[in-house]
Each structure stands twice: as structure tokens, then as C-alpha cells.
Specification:
Elements (H helix, E strand, L loop, with lengths): L7 E5 L5 H14 L20 E11 L2 E11 L3 E2 L10 E7 L10 H9 L3 E6 L5 H19 L10 E10 L2 H12 L3 E4 L21 E7 L7 H11 L4 E6 L24 H19 L4 H8 L8 E7 L5 E11 L2 E22 L5 E13 L3 E8 L4 E9 L4 E3 L3 E3 L7 E3 L2 E2 L5 E6 L4 E8 L4 E6 L9 E4 L5 E9 L2 E9 L1
Parallel strand pairs: 2-4, 5-6, 5-7, 7-8, 8-9, 9-10, 20-26
Antiparallel strand pairs: 1-11, 2-3, 3-6, 10-11, 12-13, 13-14, 13-15, 13-16, 16-17, 16-18, 19-21, 21-24, 22-23, 22-25, 25-26
């Protein structure tokens, strides 16, 4: 089996001569996998985005734990309690964990920066320092945003991209973000700053993180040294992964406040530069792994990734027998559509499609034939009719029987609103409607445009799971069908023509 999607390890140090660095960069760029598209020119990720940053104070409950949070979002104007900006939505989610005995307010510049670039950021104030609990707190905050996005009474209704989530944090909160990412395969990227080893050990769980990992560290960190904390994390992580060591950066200057600089007097890098470089690599990782933005890939692994004040190491992969171009998933009502492209293929028989309802146990649900050996771009798609929360993965199969699993994709559950088909039909005929919903259909009533009841049926218990509605022949015109389900009542318009 030939491997076209090569694993690459690339490290640039500040002591290289200019000629050697240039030559080395050119060689590495020639080896970069095509999945990292280059879009030129690319604006630097540490620059503010086009949106104003609004924020609100919210409370998240998890069991007996109360998390007082700051929630930042793209807004019509900057400031507290301003109106969310719907133009540009839906926005991905980021949860951020603060450092040991620190405050959420010490990292406001990062929340505002990410909100300006089209992210919704939630930062909880941790009630204690139990690392395992903090990881679950971050995931609870992400779930809070998911539920807010589908709750008609919440100010974020309809503007949250519930399928796209990332994590970050500083020191203790950074380690907790890595631990949280290892618990939830739906996390697409985790980009902590100066993360600390945790109890339980996040180092021991790095290989359980399915999303991209970007660790930002300071070479002069006197509290969580690179050798003891960030380097072992990076080594244990699976690709895609990167480690950006800011030369002269310390543990505290990534924060907005200087009150705790006395705890780590090491380092020569200024606060403004350390924060700018932290924003640069963090934002690039989120843009690439969460939004699929090629410029994020360029600043993470491509021609814009290197910086004179950063020692950067990264691995892209894993090795695949195809050059993968794009891989995405999208829900449309009851349909989940997987799409992927390949730039080239060698002896590729095809792709098995697997689905899981718990992110642990996968069953094969389909197969898509490959192009064999090809040097052209090929596009593929698979549609699964499924309303539930699900995880999908593709398994590439060689002609010789070898196989490689591609990354896991997550599909959020379908909205509770039932799907009705058809909604328009020929008048004067008996019509059978299909109602697709997780809820049981108990009763339905048909009204005319004048509000008069045309038909009404109460379903027997054995009929309530069928999702079938039988309508009598109707005259041409518009009608309203009211459904009574065990989870609520819904009305939909119908047209007889």
C-alpha cells in the first residue's frame, strides 16, 4: 500500500541562520499535505475580527455545582448585555478555563478577540481546584451553549453552531481543557496556554483527544516548565498536533493583569508580544480545525506558521493512502450528509461508513466505492436518515484489504420539531402524510383557512409510533395541521392544489 498523505515533523528554532531557515522552510512546504490549503494573502489571526464583542453574565448548573460565567459573543455593539449579531451566525463555541486561583476577568482580551472573529466564548469561574471536576465544568458550559442555541427563550437562540466546539484555558484551566477534550470526541480543537499536568493525568489521556491539539508554552515558564508539562503532553498527543514555545515567554504574561507577575519573574518577552503570539496560534488552530479555514491551516502548519520568536513543532497526519482534501458533516432535518474529497488515490477500493449513538460502539451502515488509483480530485457523499445525536467515521479500504480510519465526525440531534412530508399535494385525493419525530403522535386536527375543523383523529396507543396521518380528499386551498405529541403541540401549513 502506498502512502500519499505523509506524516510530517517540522521544527524551526530561533538560532537558525537566515539561509538555512529559508531552505528548510521551502523543503518542508513541499512536503506539506494538500489538506492544508494555502490562501494568500492571509490576515494574521492575532488581529481583531470584524465583529463587536458583547457579553453577559450567565450561570451554569452542573449537579450541585454553580458556575458563574462570562459569555462573550459577536454583537451589534460592544459592551455588556448588547444585542447578539445574527448576521454571520451560526457561531462556533469555545469554553475557557482560568488558572489556579485566578479570575475569569484576567483573560478578557482573549474572549473579546475570539468573539470579534465569530466565536461564542464562555468562561466559568471554577468553584474549586479539582481537575477532573473542572474538565466536566468546561463540557457543561459547552452543553449550556448547545441548549441555549435551540431554546427559543434564550438570547442565543438560532445563532449557536451546536456541532462545532473548542476548548482553551491557562495553567490549571489549560490542563483541564485537555482533560475535557479527552472525555468528549465532539471537541474539534483544544488550544491551551501554559497548560499544567492534572490529576487525573491529562498526559496519560492525550491519545484520547480526537480533535486538533495546539499547545502554547513559554520557554522561560517558571511554574509549568515546558520539559515537565507541555512537552510530554505534545509527545503523547495524536496528530494533528502542534507545540508553539514562545522564546522568552513566561507563565503569567499571557494574562491581562500584571498583579501575579511576581510569582514568575522569569522571561524576557513583553506582555503585549506574548499575548499577540498566544492569540495568533490559538485562533489559527480554532479557525482551521473548527471552521475549516485554510488561512488557519496556513498559520498552524503552512507557510505562515513560523515566527522568529517561536520554536514551533507540529505533526500533521496520520498517514493515509489517499490525499484527503475536505471532510465535513451537515444535518438537514432528518438527513445527515457526509461529504469528503480526495486529491489523489492509490489502490483505493472505497470507504466504509460507520455510525455510533454513544461515541464508543460503531456499526457499519454503508459503503461508497473509491476511484481506485487517481491523480484527480474526487468528491464523495453519503446520506443517513437519522434524527438522533450521532458520531460517524469513515474507514478507507485498500484493494489488498488494508484499512485506515479517518477522523470522527459529530452530528447534533435533529430539532424536536417534527418533519412532515408531503406538505403540498393534489386536491381531491386521499393523502398519506409521514410524520418523522422522536416524539409520539397522539392526536392531529386539520383546519381550513377559515379556522373551521376539517378532520380530527385520536390515535390508539399502538398507532402512536407509526407517524402516519391519513387525510380525506380536500378542496384546493391552504390548510393547517395541528399535531399533538407527547413533547408538545405543533402546527404546520399544507397546500392542496
Amino acid at each position: 500500500m502506498r502512502v500519499h498523505f505523509a506524516m510530517l515533523l517540522y521544527s524551526v528554532t530561533t538560532v537558525d541562520t537566515a539561509m538555512f531557515r529559508t531552505l528548510y522552510l521551502l523543503i518542508c512546504l513541499c512536503l506539506l499535505p494538500p489538506v492544508i490549503a494555502e490562501a494568500q494573502p492571509c490576515p494574521t489571526p492575532d488581529a481583531a475580527g470584524p465583529f463587536a464583542a458583547g457579553w453577559q453574565a450567565v450561570t451554569v448548573q452542573r449537579g450541585g455545582r454553580t458556575l458563574n460565567c462570562r459569555l462573550f459573543y459577536p454583537a451589534q455593539s460592544a459592551g455588556q448585555n448588547t444585542t447578539v449579531l445574527t448576521n454571520g451566525a451560526p457561531y462556533p463555541m469555545i469554553a475557557f478555563g482560568h488558572g489556579f486561583f485566578m479570575q475569569t476577568s484576567y483573560y478578557t482580551s482573549y474572549y473579546e478577540h475570539l468573539a470579534s472573529r465569530g466565536y461564542i466564548v464562555i468562561a466559568p469561574q471554577f468553584p474549586d481546584t479539582q481537575h477532573g471536576e473542572l474538565a466536566l465544568d468546561l463540557l457543561a458550559c459547552i452543553e449550556y451553549l448547545r441548549q441555549s442555541g435551540i431554546s427559543s427563550s434564550h438570547f442565543l437562540f438560532g445563532v449557536v453552531d451546536t456541532a462545532k466546539a473548542g476548548l482553551s484555558g491557562h495553567s490549571m484551566g489549560g490542563g483541564a481543557s485537555l482533560l475535557a477534550a479527552s472525555y468528549d470526541s465532539r471537541i474539534l480543537a483544544v488550544a491551551p496556554m501554559c497548560p499544567a499536568e492534572t490529576t487525573p493525568s491529562c498526559i496519560n489521556r492525550m491519545d484520547q483527544i480526537s480533535g486538533g491539539v495546539c499547545i502554547i508554552a513559554g520557554s522561560a515558564d517558571g511554574i509549568t516548565s515546558v520539559a515537565v508539562h507541555q512537552q510530554p503532553m505534545y509527545r503523547a498527543a495524536m496528530p494533528f498536533k502542534s507545540l508553539a514555545v514562545l522564546q522568552g515567554g513566561n507563565h503569567t504574561r499571557c494574562m491581562d493583569v500584571s498583579a501575579f507577575d511576581w510569582t514568575d519573574p522569569n522571561g524576557t518577552m513583553s506582555r503585549s508580544q506574548q499575548q499577540a503570539l498566544t492569540r495568533r496560534y490559538m485562533t489559527a488552530a480554532f479557525d482551521y480545525h473548527i471552521k475549516g479555514d485554510s488561512c488557519g491551516g496556513s498559520f498552524s502548519y503552512g507557510s505562515n506558521a513560523t515566527h522568529a520568536d517561536v520554536q514551533l513543532s507540529f505533526v500533521t497526519g496520520p498517514a493515509w493512502p489517499v490525499e484527503l482534501g475536505e471532510l465535513s458533516i451537515q444535518r438537514n432535518g432528518s438527513d445527515v450528509r457526509l461529504r469528503w474529497t480526495t486529491e489523489s488515490e492509490t489502490e483505493n477500493f472505497g470507504f466504509k461508513v460507520f455510525r455510533s449513538f454513544d461515541a464508543k460502539h460503531y456499526e457499519e451502515i454503508g459503503f461508497v466505492f473509491g476511484a481506485g488509483s487517481s491523480l484527480e480530485r474526487n468528491s464523495y457523499a453519503y446520506i443517513d436518515r437519522n434524527r438522533k445525536e450521532s458520531w460517524y467515521r469513515l474507514r478507507q479500504i485498500d484493494f489488498d484489504g488494508g484499512s485506515t480510519d479517518l477522523p470522527v465526525l459529530y452530528a447534533a440531534p435533529a430539532p424536536s420539531t417534527p418533519d412532515i412530508y408531503p406538505t403540498s399535494f393534489r386536491s381531491g385525493t386521499h393523502v398519506t402524510l409521514s410524520i418523522e419525530s422522536e416524539a409520539r403522535l397522539i392526536e392531529y386536527t386539520l383546519f381550513g383557512l377559515d379556522g373551521k375543523r376539517v378532520a380530527q383523529t385520536f390515535l390508539r396507543p399502538e398507532e402512536q409510533h407509526n407517524g402516519i396521518v391519513q387525510l380525506p380528499p380536500l378542496s384546493p386551498g391552504k390548510y393547517f395541521l395541528t399535531l399533538v405529541l407527547d413533547r408538545g403541540m405543533y402546527t404546520r401549513s399544507l397546500l392542496a392544489f
